[in-house]
Amino acid sequence: IAQxxxxxxxxxxxxxxxxxFEYQAIExxxxxxPATLALSQVTEHILPPAIMVLVSQLNHDxxxxxxxxxxxxxxxxxTLNIEAAKRS
Length: 88
What we know:
By secondary structure, this protein is α+β, with helices and mostly antiparallel strands. The protein has helices at about 10-30, 35-40, 60-75, and strands spanning about 50-55, 80-85.
């Protein structure tokens, strides 16, 4: 997205617009996701440079955890994403 912001062509601008729309939708969904809300509560009790291990076996959590982890990293936290294997 950062590189597309420099593009001046109409197709480049259309692609940028679509990607921005998708990114905003992902961020909005992540904002209301239970994992995001839980991690927000955790950060009220710990300070950076704490390390948080994010574990989930649900693939629909992936985008929310990725967006939230990115924001936590910018705040000085270290996040480790681990996908738990499902047991049959």
